[in-house]
Amino acid sequence: MDQELLRSLLIAPHSTIKEAIQRLNDTGRKILFVTDAQNKLIGALSDGDIRRGIITGLVMNTPVESVMTKKFFSLPLNTRDLAHDAKTLMQKHMIEQVPVVNENGVIVDVLLWIDFLGDDRPVITKKAAALDNPVVIMAGGKGTRLDPFTKILPKPLIPLGDKPVIENIMDRYHENGFSRFILVVNYKKEMIKAYFGENTLPYSITFVEEEEFYGTAGGMFLLRRMIDRPFIVTNCDTILEGSYHDFIQWHHNHKNIMTIIGSHREFTVPYGVLCMNNGVLERIDEKPKLDLFINTGTYMFDPSIFDFIKDRQHLDMDKLIALVTVQRAERVGVYPHWGGWFDIGQWDEYRKSLKELGNV
Asked: Other CB atoms closer than 10 Å to residue 251's CB: what's the count?
């Protein structure tokens, strides 16, 4: 492995979870290796380790040594056949990287699955069954936050590059292996149907028409006879970057009736914040930064969710979540996400998304 890339995969035990997330985003990898001051390998840190720490309540400035895995696979540098042993470890334990250490335990290389297995990536076969999950796109709203654009075009057809936003959304899901899409439409629905009627796409699209405006969740009652397995629901103005497979696996593993993708966002308070104790000033934090997880408008549901949605009832997603958690105390989970998230439902975010996605 290139030494610069190797260094980018190493992180100190006192580094924060927030720093690790940034490093994972920068490298595009799913794992980092925790080393001491002498580069001795002392732990491994995957994005799954970080997610598990966050959902238990750890804050973003927690040192990574609190969530790293101390049990990990590695190979000594003097192994007779490194390639053979690395390939065996990867196939047996469904891992994608194997660190190599010298006689002092110092990490000197990382062997990657792609170096030995080509396109036969072991994790793909493990996740292939999830590709049968339908993707529901709620595309019936008026998109009033994007006036006056949406007085002419429905929000799903607003251009993002050379394609409308809804096609960009479906293309990303299709790249992850999904091929069945259900579009719940209402406002200017004939324009949406006409657009897809004139374009041949490599996936199937079913249109479900609302008779009235049923809110961000109410229209799902129209799907109860169409879906018999866990399914994804997303807004028509949300683009997520990252692995949808991991999201589905997280939902299954935690046995949720509903899982919400929450995207990490850092917000700066533009004022000095007074920190008090019993009315006495302790300190002033100047423009502190807050780390929050924001609802991205993307969800995974178990089909039993239909029990909470009445026929032809206006119901927004926040009210549905309250019904699920309060009335029956069903499990609603959160999947912490730190890849790209683009909300193009309002002008400022739309312009920002155009720039970050390279369309301006």
From this structure: 25
